[in-house]
Design a protein that fits this description.
Layout: H1 3-14, E1 20-30, H2 31-36, E2 41-42, E3 45-46, E4 52-62, H3 65-94
Antiparallel strand pairs: 1-4, 2-3
Helix pairs in contact: 1-3
């Protein structure tokens, strides 16, 4: 991909509103925290208060518009980029998302 196109994509993506998506991450959790939450067994064994366990937790992550625009450009050219930008702007409008620049 040409540097000029990458530069333009970076410029355009910085002007798009931040859109968040649901995801999940694995975090270490102490057994004592699990016990406080009422969990008594993990993987079929009793929870030990000073042991570490892994727990899948929901998180919100901002969509990386730059990566999405690059992918659209590679797959569909400028028409794909235009369609992506239009979809993001429509989503933002429907959900009252305001573009907040840092």
């Amino acid at each position: 991909m040409k540097k000029s196109i990458v530069k333009e994509i970076r410029k355009v993506s910085s002007g798009l509103p931040v859109i968040m998506r649901h995801s999940s991450e694995i975090h270490p959790v102490l057994g004592s925290e699990l016990i406080l939450q009422g969990v008594t067994e993990a993987e079929g064994k009793p929870v030990v208060s000073d042991s570490l366990y892994t727990c899948c937790m929901p998180v919100m992550i901002a969509i990386n518009h730059e990566n999405k625009l690059k992918k659209e450009y590679k797959e569909n050219g400028t028409n794909g980029m235009k369609a992506y930008i239009l979809a993001v702007m429509n989503h933002a409008k429907l959900n009252n998302i305001v573009n907040e620049t840092p």
